[in-house]
Amino acid sequence: MAITTKNLTCIVCPRGCTLTVTLDSALENPVVSVEGQGCKRGVDYATAECTHPTRVLTTTAPTVDGGVVPCKTDRAIPRELLFEAMKAVNSLSAPAVVRIGDILLENLLGTGANIVATANRGEL
Questions:
Q1: pLDDT surpasses 90 at 27
Q2: C-alpha distance across the termini of the chain, in Å
Q3: Quick one: which of 16, 55, 51 has its CA closest to 37?
Q4: pLDDT at residue number 29
Q5: CA-CA distance, 71 to 59, in Å (whole number)?
Q6: Strand locations in the chain, DSSP E?
Q7: In whole angstroms, what is the distance from residue 89 CA to residue 82 CA?
Q8: pLDDT averaged over the chain?
Q9: Distance from C-alpha of 2 to C-alpha of 78, rounded to nearest angstrom
Q10: pLDDT band at 11, cuts 50/70/90?
Q11: 3-state class percentages of the chain: helix first, strand second, coil last, to nearest 5
C-alpha cells in the first residue's frame, strides 16, 4: 500500500480552491479522498487530474503561404499526447484564408478532438 498526497489548485471556477488529494496506488481507483474543495466540481477535477489528466492544446499552425494561424483543440485531449499532437499540428499546411472555427485537422490522433482556427486570417 503506497499512500501519497498531491496538492492541487482547482481551475474549474474562479475560487481556485487548494485541494489535497490522498492517493493509494494499490487501488483500482487510486483517489482515496479530496479535501479543500468548495464544491463537487473540485472533487471531479482532482480525480480526473490525478487519474487521467487532459488539456486543451492552444498553438499556431503553419499556413501554405508561410504564415501561421492561431488554433486550438475543440476539446481536451490526454496530456500524454500533447507532444505528438504538436508534431501533427506542425506538419499541417493550413489554407492562407481561414475563418474562426474552421477545422484545420479532424480527429487529432484518434481523440475525437479537432484542431480549429481561433482567428480570421487572410482576405475574407
A1: no
A2: 61
A3: 16
A4: 87
A5: 6
A6: 3-9, 18-24, 31-35, 54-55, 58-62, 68-73, 77-78, 103-105, 115-117
A7: 10
A8: 95
A9: 25
A10: very high
A11: 20, 35, 45
